[in-house]
Specification:
Elements: H1 3-24, H2 28-43, H3 59-85, H4 87-97, H5 100-114, H6 117-128, H7 135-151, H8 167-185, H9 198-223, H10 243-253, E1 263-264, E2 267-271, H11 272-280, H12 285-292, H13 296-319
Antiparallel strand pairs: 1-2
Helix pairs in contact: 1-2, 2-3, 3-4, 3-5, 3-6, 6-7, 8-9, 9-13, 10-11
Length: 322
């Protein structure tokens, strides 16, 4: 068992013990203490407002933590009251509520309910207060992006304009670019504009970037000219291996390991060999995107760029057979 699993098991054993204490004691102070310990234990795995290098929370992060804690306490008090009133029903409820999935989902729901525009705005303004490129600003921006994701307040613009298979790809790319924009340009946010709504500023940018993603997609789709096309013009003599078979074998063997070393940043599996072989096998960009979990514009741009660079080498290899 890994250390992580041991810690998880220990945590849930503690929760089980504390819940039993709440349900068996008639001492209100002991119940109150146990409930607070339960909530503190649950919040150790909170999805937001983590401490910065172990320092105490402050400002909006402390506010969010305190409000989440209060809601969890109220939830548990309600649960205990229900238990005392209807023991048989809540024996099943107790088992369900102590499952890890339930606890994590409960946390997520509570934080999601809390993260209104006002709190997200405070998180954005908190990030503005820290120096550019400082560790504290990085921390604040990371918390802000997590908060936006968790809040469920990102819009989904222009859904009806695109197919159900294309839109998720465009949207994913646009969301990524929106978060990057926020991190670089948080100081441009003006709380006095956009009806004073922070998410109006975020969603306005997201709206524009969905359309930009489509324009980029069209550009790559319309102008994707494989540098291998010129190879087809080479006359293929009779009784020679198939042209594409030669290329496939060469890319697969990659004797000098040059094709595998050309890959998308931080994704050595998404290299020139694997992407090109996927294209040769007849897969569409949508299928390749699903295969690697990488947006189409990123794949297409990478593919076209390296096709141009490797074209002389590949043509030289092919000419050996003619």
């Amino acid at each position: 068992m890994t250390i992580s699993n041991e810690l998880e098991q220990s945590k849930y054993q503690l929760l089980d013990k504390l819940m039993d204490e709440c349900q068996t004691t008639n001492d209100f102070q002991q119940q109150e203490l146990a409930i607070n310990q339960i909530v503190t234990t649950i919040l150790r795995s909170r999805p937001l407002c983590r401490r910065f290098h172990g320092t105490p929370l402050k400002g909006v992060y402390q506010e969010i933590y305190d409000r989440a804690k209060e809601k969890l306490i109220i939830h548990l008090y309600t649960y205990l009251i229900d238990f005392n009133e209807d023991e048989n029903f809540n024996k099943f409820k107790k088992i369900k509520q102590l499952e890890p999935n339930y606890l994590y989902q409960l946390q997520k729901q509570i934080f999601q309910q809390l993260l209104d525009d006002d709190l997200l705005k405070k998180m954005g303004l908190a990030a503005q207060n820290y120096s550019v490129n400082s560790e504290l600003r990085t921390y604040a921006l990371t918390e802000l992006i997590k908060g936006i994701k968790l809040s469920g307040r990102l819009c989904r613009p222009h859904v009806s304009k695109f197919s159900s298979s294309l839109y998720p790809l465009l949207y994913e790319e646009a969301v990524t670019e929106t978060f990057a924009y926020i991190c670089v340009n948080i100081d441009l946010y003006d709380p006095q504009r956009g009806n004073c709504k922070f998410m109006n500023w975020v969603n306005f940018k997201l709206d524009k970037l969905v359309l930009k993603s489509y324009i980029d997609y069209q550009k790559y789709a319309q102008h994707e000219v494989s540098s291998f096309a010129g190879l087809e013009q080479i006359r293929q003599p009779v009784n020679t291996p198939d042209l594409w078979q030669i290329l496939q074998e060469y890319l697969t063997q990659d004797p000098d390991r040059i094709f595998a070393t050309a890959h998308i940043r931080n994704r050595p599996d998404a290299n020139f060999s694997s992407i090109t072989l996927a294209k040769f096998s007849g897969k569409s960009w949508e299928q390749i995107s699903d295969l690697f979990g990488i947006p189409i514009p990123t794949l297409s741009s990478f593919y076209n760029r390296w096709c141009r660079r490797f074209s002389p080498l590949l043509k030289t290899e092919l000419k050996k057979y003619f």
